[in-house]
């Protein structure tokens, strides 16, 4: 049954305010038309998401849209767990995987603002284990004996823009050499990454990889705090993000969404990680290690759109926040990809993908938008031109889910007047 948008918003508000104290406070709500969004067109957003649930593309979903700082759409549909039949709560916890990168990179910007480093500083200045790292003769090789000397230092800016030469956690090179495992410590993973040759000379090419996890270790070095404590004290608590964490215990575990994978046309539970998300992992991973909720990520995104401030609380200066919206990939490493949206994107010192050529995308985007997604079915957009933020989360692997995220973006854009 399709409800009116008004009833949906009222239901959502009830869910949000009745949730336990672990949930973030929502953004202020507004009638869609008051900020230039069609209420009737938003009906199609819910219908589309429900159709993907009915088709078995995704088990459930939570999605929210804000414009001019006001929440104009929020809905929780489907189920948290298909086997138990638990309805999807508004404050469901999701494994956000690569959407953790932007939070960790934001922490790096805070440290920059405090004068802890310069972007051109060599990484080895703070992590000496990287001092003697070499470079593969063949970037696609896994033969770590065939290397050449590094001709330039790996810098903090290279880490923020994925141009350091480090690889992906799922690459054959890293898997063969056990670089990353959730059962090892952050210190051990950092050492592992430093002992394996780089794929390319720093600054010469874009390679999407484990950079934010190494940045997380740098945050610990600069701040003198464990990464989880630093993020809690300097980002999550000030912004009221009470549902963003590295693991979920007790009542929090009860709202952790189950990940599903389509098998023979049926969604079945699937463990992406062998280490549980309901107890403290050995690896506190700034690259892919966070859980979060749609209300929390809406608040984080709105703060970024506001250039470092939310509800009167400033966590970054406007001047530093401006770096989040500027491509910082070295010219030698552009374009960052050869097809699809990669061909039309840059990467910023805030750790965000930046839309530079909207025509390269297969869904509607505005140039200047920053965005990213996670490998278990999450995605967000921050659009300065339209003054909007959009967050959508499900738990499905592969993350495509029948294109539910793309359909969501198309229909929300159609609702903006």
List keywords for this structure.
two-stranded antiparallel sheet; single chain; eight-stranded antiparallel β-sheet; 16 strands; 417 residues; disordered N terminus
Residues in β-strands, percent: 15-25%
Q: Please report the distance between the alpha carbons of the first and last residues.
A: 26 Å
Number of strands: 16
Q: Report the sheet with the most strands, covering strand number, pairing sense and barrel closure.
A: 8 strands, antiparallel
Order of helices and strands: HHEEEEHEEHHHHHEEEHEEHHEEEEEH
Protein described:
The protein is an alpha+beta fold. Helices cover 29% and strands 16% of the residues. It has twelve helices and 16 strands. Helix 2 packs antiparallel against helix 12 (404-415) and helix 3 packs parallel to helix 7. Residues 1-24 have low confidence and may be disordered.
Indicate the topology.
Blueprint: H1 5-18, H2 39-54, E1 60-67, E2 70-81, E3 86-87, E4 94-95, H3 100-113, E5 135-136, E6 147-148, H4 156-160, H5 172-176, H6 186-195, H7 211-223, H8 227-239, E7 260-263, E8 266-269, E9 291-292, H9 294-305, E10 309-310, E11 313-314, H10 318-321, H11 340-343, E12 345-347, E13 353-355, E14 370-374, E15 378-383, E16 388-393, H12 404-415
Short description:
This protein has 417 residues and is of the alpha+beta class. Helices cover 29% and strands 16% of the residues.
């Amino acid at each position: 049954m399709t409800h009116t948008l008004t009833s949906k918003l009222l239901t959502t508000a009830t869910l949000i305010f009745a949730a336990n104290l672990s949930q973030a406070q929502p953004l202020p709500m507004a009638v869609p038309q008051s900020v230039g969004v069609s209420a009737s067109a938003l009906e199609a957003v819910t219908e589309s998401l429900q159709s993907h649930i009915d088709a078995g593309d995704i088990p459930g979903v939570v999605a929210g849209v804000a414009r001019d700082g006001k929440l104009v759409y929020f809905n929780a549909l489907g189920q948290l767990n298909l086997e138990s039949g638990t309805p999807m709560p508004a404050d469901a916890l999701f494994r956000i995987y690569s959407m953790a990168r932007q939070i960790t990179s934001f922490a790096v910007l805070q440290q920059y603002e405090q004068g802890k480093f310069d972007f051109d500083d060599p990484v080895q200045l703070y992590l000496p284990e990287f001092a003697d790292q070499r470079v593969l003769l063949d970037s696609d090789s896994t033969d770590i004996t065939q290397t050449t000397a590094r001709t330039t230092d790996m810098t903090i800016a290279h880490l923020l823009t994925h141009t350091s030469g480090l690889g992906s956690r799922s690459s054959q090179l890293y898997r063969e050499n056990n670089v990353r495992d959730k059962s090892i410590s952050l210190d051990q993973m950092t050492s592992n990454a430093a002992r394996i040759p780089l794929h390319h000379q720093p600054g010469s090419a874009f390679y999407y990889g484990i950079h934010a996890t190494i940045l997380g270790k740098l945050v610990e070095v600069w701040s003198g705090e464990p990464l989880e404590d630093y993020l809690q004290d300097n980002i999550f608590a000030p912004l009221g993000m009470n549902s963003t964490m590295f693991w979920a215990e007790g009542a929090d575990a009860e709202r952790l969404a189950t990940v599903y994978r389509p098998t023979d046309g049926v969604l079945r539970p699937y463990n992406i990680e062998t280490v549980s998300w309901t107890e403290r992992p050995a690896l506190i991973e700034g690259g892919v290690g966070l859980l979060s909720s749609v209300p929390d990520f809406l608040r984080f995104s709105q703060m970024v759109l506001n250039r470092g401030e939310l509800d009167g609380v400033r966590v970054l200066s406007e001047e530093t926040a401006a770096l989040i919206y500027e491509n910082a990939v070295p010219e030698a490493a552009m374009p960052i990809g050869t097809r699809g949206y990669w061909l039309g994107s840059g990467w910023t010192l805030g750790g965000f993908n930046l839309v530079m050529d909207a025509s390269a995308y297969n869904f509607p985007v505005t140039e200047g938008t920053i965005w990213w997604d996670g490998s278990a079915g999450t995605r967000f957009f921050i659009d300065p031109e339209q003054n909007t933020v959009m967050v959508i989360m499900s738990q499905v692997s592969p993350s495509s889910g029948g294109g539910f995220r793309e359909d969501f973006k198309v229909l929300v854009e159609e609702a903006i007047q």
